[in-house]
Amino acid sequence: MWYEDALxxxxxxxxxxxxxxxxxxxxxxxxxxxxLSSLGYHVVTFDYRGWGDSVGTPSERGMTxxxxxxxxxxxxRSGDNPVxxxxxxxxxxxxxxxxxxxxxxxxxxxxxxxxxxxxxIREEAKSHPFSVIYRYFPGFDWFFLDPITSSGIKFANDENxxxxxxxxxxxxxxxxxxxxxxxxxxxxxxxAPARSFRDFKVQFVPFHSDLGYRHKYIxxxxxxxxxxxxFLGKSEPEHQH
Length: 241
Description:
Shape: globular
Keywords: Endoplasmic reticulum, Glycoprotein, Hydrolase, Lipid metabolism, Membrane, Transmembrane, Transmembrane helix
Number of helices: 10
Largest sheet: 6 strands, parallel
GO molecular function: monoacylglycerol lipase activity; phosphatidylcholine lysophospholipase activity
Membrane topology: Single-pass membrane protein
Distance between the termini: 42 Å
Helix content: 25-40%
Structural class: alpha/beta
Oligomer: single chain
Radius of gyration: 17 Å
CATH architecture: 3-Layer(aba) Sandwich
Strand content: 5-15%
CATH class: Alpha Beta
Protein name: Lysophosphatidylserine lipase ABHD12
EC number: 3.1.1.23
């Protein structure tokens, strides 16, 4: 009951979709939740089927369905509060799958934030022949051994963004050793001119290599509160770099 009352209180809510290794309790994730919480956002997160203490076997479709279920659970309890979706790393693939479906059924989130995103899983795998993004995916030892099986996994952020209509913020560190910076930039270059975003702003924020944020430490940026406040605080169309 406490949680349900809290969700109905007047704070925006972020649904956080995590990346591949570990669980919703991973250190860098908890640090981000703390930052977001201190800025006045409720954060709701969960482990996909097959991760953490969630039963089941991972699949792209199943992970997307899990995220959809949690989104609907939040929306049923959040009143008029904004609900934002934040995906990190592999979670960006779940996030764009989810938001594409939400836009198709005309219940878009109030914004989508993609941290360290790729274009699609094929390009990510090509840039990492022994990809770190997969190393911990439960049951995924076969991924690189069986190209036929792997073709069932798309996580096609580049296709999905063409069907998404809500404000989009992309955050990426130039020194990311897991998902190359140029894949995040390429995703931005596909989304920014897309017709689906013509009424919404699309923003790309790079973090210089000297900062050392790599794949999962953007939460450390002292600029992050301002970036979020400026992006989430206004919603007029504005493509900016």
